[in-house]
Amino acid sequence: MDSIKRYMKFVFPYKWKILLTVLIGIVKFGIPLLMPLILKYVIDDIIGAEALSTSEKLTELFWLMGIAAGLFLVLRPPIEYYRQYLAQWTGNKILYDIREKLFDHIQRLSLKFYSRTKTGEIISRVINDVEQTKNFVMTGLMNIWLDMITILIAIVIMLFMDVWLTIVSIALFPLYAISVKIFYGRLRDLTRNRSQALAQVQGHLHERVQGIPVTRSFALEDYEEKEFDKHNQHFLDKAIDHTSWNAKTFAVMNTITDVAPLLVIGFAGYFAITSDLTTGTIAAFFGYMERVYGPLRRLISSSTVLVQSIASMDRVFEFMDEDYDIKDKPNAKPLKQIEGKVEFDHVSFRYEEEEEVVLNDICLDVKQGGNSSISRYEWWW
């Protein structure tokens, strides 16, 4: 959760654009929710209206289709365009800001960090992992809310049509919550392991491609092929673990999704036989079932995407938290004026705390113009 809080700092400057995107999306997804009601009206109030003549039925049908065509052909396309444009613009701008921050961080890291870190892994975090976090914006901050609002509106409309049939339709919802809790915690760990293994493959490959002339010169092709196979096999193992658990997750979720309509079919038939449930209401209900379970399936898929994006966030901020080896002291004074003179006063240096001193007690005076003097030094090589 700490990664999400930190990521939201990059999201916050664009909160109003995200809110606007969600509001436009509500209209975009709300228009198709009229389709089952139109179908119910055509079946019950036009086709089944015995008091209307054929010409009156056709007139009413043409008027209804004209209004519907105006909504779907005139109003919906520009709404769809602006929703997609705003969503993509916001997501890409957030990634731009994160990469700017990471590049500034990269330039401040010490040479010691680069001596023990593969270039390919750094590139993987800046490019691949940052790109994966975009799904958190597109899915977590936009699409999930739209799907949840769509489900809520559909359920409200269904309640007005038939309360008991609506209760049957959402009876399996608690199973979704239980399944998400069981499966997605483990999936996050597997996703993080898979991303790390992929970064290792990319890092190894980047170095070996740069060293191809050396490999060819010393005829090391067979050795390098075995080394790459080790990294590639490690990634394959992690990818298969992730795929296996992900497949189990979808198997359980889709089973629940498939059982729910069967329950509605049985109860709708029962209510139609024993009560006054109309054919139009049944048809509309099945239209809304798709409007409920379609977004619900997307929510299941979105959960997987969010888990992957959060795992990528963890890797991005892990890299961003890499400490600088050289830091100013708390009481360090700002360098306001440079005179061109450099002086080392009894300076010693070692690469690591546990290693031997390589420069011991150096006193070096470099004056402007090239004149310099060394009063005392010891070099340890």
Written overview of the protein:
InterPro entries: ABC1_TM_dom (IPR011527), ABC1_TM_sf (IPR036640), Type_1_exporter (IPR039421). It comes from Gracilibacillus boraciitolerans JCM 21714. It is a multi-pass membrane protein. Its main location: membrane. This protein has 381 residues and is mainly alpha-helical. It has 2 domains: 319 residues, ABC transporter transmembrane region fold; 38 residues, no CATH class. It contains 11 helices and 3 strands, in the order αααααααααααβββ. The protein has a 3-stranded antiparallel sheet with strand order 1-2-3, with no helix packed on it. Strand 2 and strand 3 form a beta hairpin. It is elongated and about 110 Å long.
